[in-house]
Design goal:
Length: about 120
């Protein structure tokens, strides 16, 4: 059973940067994908982006391309979401998730709050 623990996030002024990491334990993620999602107050959860753990290929929500960068460290079983030029509308709880053998995002982190002040 894969367990995901997120760290990072916090409060930042508009235009600033934050980094969130997601560390996997209890299982291998080498054949999985890791995705980031976010949920803003009063809004549905939305996809931020993902990374294929094997080849490192990434995809992003169109509106976030160029500002958000996803990477992974195979040796540390850690994924990272680097968020730049943050805007108040980026305020949300951010979650990482990893796919299981059926390619379903079955494993989720606890979520971490990101607040961007104007």
């Amino acid at each position: 059973q894969v367990q995901l623990v997120e760290s990072g996030g916090g409060l930042v002024q508009a235009g600033g940067s934050l980094r969130i990491t997601c560390t996997a334990s209890g299982g291998t993620v080498s054949s999985s994908s890791m995705a980031w999602f976010r949920r803003a107050p009063g809004k549905p959860r939305e996809f931020v982006g993902d990374i294929n753990w094997k080849d490192g290929s990434t995809s992003y929500r169109n509106s976030l391309k160029g500002r958000f960068i996803i990477s992974r460290d195979n040796a540390k079983n850690t994924g990272t979401l680097q968020m730049n030029s943050l805007k108040p509308e980026d305020t949300a709880v951010y979650y990482c998730a990893v796919t299981d053998s059926r390619d379903v995002y079955s494993y989720w982190g606890q979520g971490t709050q990101v607040t961007v002040s104007s």
